[in-house]
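debug: dumping io for the single-chain case to check the tokenizer round-trip. Nothing else runs in this session.
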Amino acid sequence: MLILNYKQEFLEEMTKIYNENKIFDPDFRPLSIYEFKTKFIDLPYIKPEYIFIAKEGNKIIGYVISDFDKLVEKKFKKRILIIDSLVVERERLFEVGSLLIKKLEEKAKEIQAHFIQAHFIDSTNTYENKFYLENGFLLDKKWYYLETTTQNFGIPDLPKGYRWVYLENYEIIRKWVKCYNEAFKEHYGMRPLRINELKSYYKEEGFDPTGYFGIYDEEKNLVIGECSCEIDPLFNKYKKIKRGIIWTLGVLKEYRGKGFGKKLLRKAFNWFHSKGIERIAIHVEEDNKAAYDLYSKHGFEIKRYRLFYTKSIF
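debug: decoded output
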């Protein structure tokens, strides 16, 4: 068996392995080669030297896509090698996956990373969770996955001096991204967002710019709260459901406790309702009591968990 670095010629087989073996994840849907490349390869922090391919003969049997993001290092003041996707033929996960982890450990030591982290592992996938634990990872954080039924609250009124904004021009996009990064400055598991990364979302099947909005303080000329919503029509067709997801909802620290989070959430409800969506999902860190309380008051209930694993290197 060979462990190789990524080449574009591997893309088709990597997509095939993903589609055949990620089926156990409740948020899975099959991806086209283009979608796989957009989702995992064409991101500004992904580099070929952090992608490893397990090949046996002429057949690819597994891969790991990881990244070392300087913005993550700056945020957490630690060097972290993040596993974005690790997929192996299911019956060989422990054998081949362990070899890929060892290769990552070598890379982590080479760049003097403090940790390797695996993000967003679904709690219902006991097989995958066992794999990380047996490879020396420790459970670090837990996020709730919540769902509720869509309601129509109408478009919330904003106080005088504030208005709703969308990603209508570069200046608003820049301020929206700045708000996102400031709002989640101390939030575990949320990597800093680049404008180029946000632009890459436009290539995704479920991207609709009207689902990305914010609250604008006209006196201070800044976005003080942001929300990003997504409907993946191919996921809904695959699962035979009508689900939308709120990926982010954040308010600047100095504006919290004033009802802006509630207004953003209710506007998201209204947006999903206008699109014919029946169920809304959201993730929240288990330690974020204020956010959890807001969501639970709007009918959100815990359905499962997304887990974060960490392995210390230095």
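debug: round-trip ok. The CA atoms of residues 98 and 135 lie 7 Å apart.
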